[in-house]
Amino acid sequence: MSFRIEPTAHPTPDADRKALLEAPAFGRVFTDHMLTMRYTADAGWSDGVIAARAPLAIDPAAAVLHYAQEIFEGMKAYWLADGTPALFRPEANAARFNRSAVRMAMPELPEEAFVEGIKQFVALERDWIPSGDGASLYLRPFMFATEAFLGVRPAREYLFAIIASPAGSYFKSGSAGLRLFVSREHVRAAPGGTGEAKCGGNYAGGLIAQSVASQAGCDQVLFLDAREQRWIEELGGMNIMFVFDDGSMVTPPLGGTILPGITRDSLLQLARDAGVTVREEPYSIEQLKADVAAGRLVEAFACGTAAVVSSIATFVDGDQEIGLPAATPVTTRLKSALQSIYAGTAEDRHGWLTRIA
Ligand SMILES: *Cc1c(COP(=O)(O)O)cnc(C)c1O
């Protein structure tokens, strides 16, 4: 699968780009190009091109605007310590993208096309990869239904695209740890729903909970299961893990309502490699309170591509505040283990790095 490359006639001047890369705010600055590829039910995928980033023209009847067939991925390109640009587990993003596509009745994209598209796109935009601690070029592959048709059935036409945004660290460094708002009013995902698909609709449904959380002075929402409002699931865009006083770790099991994070999977593997006992098992909010009170639960952290690993300081459940100890040695150790693999300074035992020529 190859992509036609049509470099923009108006690239951002070097000095302007360098200024933009000084302190990029997440998701506000974009690179010069985008990748697009079209799908029709009759012709399949065609017309892959990397060209100047520009507004998209879509019909007002495009199915995505009415019935929300849209999925996306989030991944990063960054500099290895040896000065090579790299991607972290892009095949895992490609595979997850297709699982999301299947759930949303959208066409799958050959995994090679996804990975090759990302590589060619990043190769063209390499000057936009910021350097510095935790900085990266955030890549956003996405796909949506373009067919102009208001009938309710899976659309027959789609656009796949990739855009990119240089990013510094997601959460301000030196911050004390996340304050999580336990959502009792809203749920993110229900059994049989779309919780394990990375679709825009899951985010749309969670935004109100995020607003409530912000008003309560919290950083993020912690969602509980839909059936019993008892089991901890995940945050709006990050998975969650717990560390106990015996050194073991727990994370909620994937089971249809939790997004299968690649960071989650990587951290579980690294913890197991390090001999840590890791359990993927249900953990209730009531048990969490009892374990904090008993001094058994000693650390908790959120994980995802954008923020990598962020320790959690406080859970806010109604008028109860549950605070965790300030020291986070296991979280810090796991985070740096993952970051050394990202940077190419630790042995890449699982073949997670893809270097870009
Ligand atoms: C993307 C996402 C995650 C994290 O997945 P990563 O692959 O680790 O970035 C977790 N939860 C939700 C809801 C997500 O959308």
Give the integer mean of the pLDDT values.
96
Residue fraction in strands:
25-35%
**Beta strands, count:** 18
Would you give the CATH topology of the largest domain?
D-amino Acid Aminotransferase, Chain A, domain 2
Helices, by number, come to 8
Q: Low-confidence parts lasting 5 or more residues at pLDDT below 50?
A: none
Shape: globular
Topology pattern, helix = H, strand = E: EHEEHEEEHHEEEHEEEEHEHEEEHE
CATH class of the largest domain: Alpha Beta
CATH architecture of the largest domain: Alpha-Beta Barrel
Distance between the termini: 17 Å
Radius of gyration: 21 Å
What is the domain total for the residues? Answer: 2
Could you tell me which ligands this complex binds, including any ions or cofactors?
Answer: pyridoxal-5'-phosphate
Q: Portion of residues in helices?
A: 25-40%
Structural class, from helix and strand content?
alpha+beta
CATH superfamily of the largest domain: D-amino Acid Aminotransferase, subunit A, domain 2
- In this structure, how is the largest beta sheet organized? 9 strands, mixed
Organism: Sphingomonas sanxanigenens DSM 19645 = NX02
GO biological process, one term: isoleucine biosynthetic process
Catalytic activity: L-valine + 2-oxoglutarate = 3-methyl-2-oxobutanoate + L-glutamate; L-leucine + 2-oxoglutarate = 4-methyl-2-oxopentanoate + L-glutamate; L-isoleucine + 2-oxoglutarate = (S)-3-methyl-2-oxopentanoate + L-glutamate
Function: Acts on leucine, isoleucine and valine.
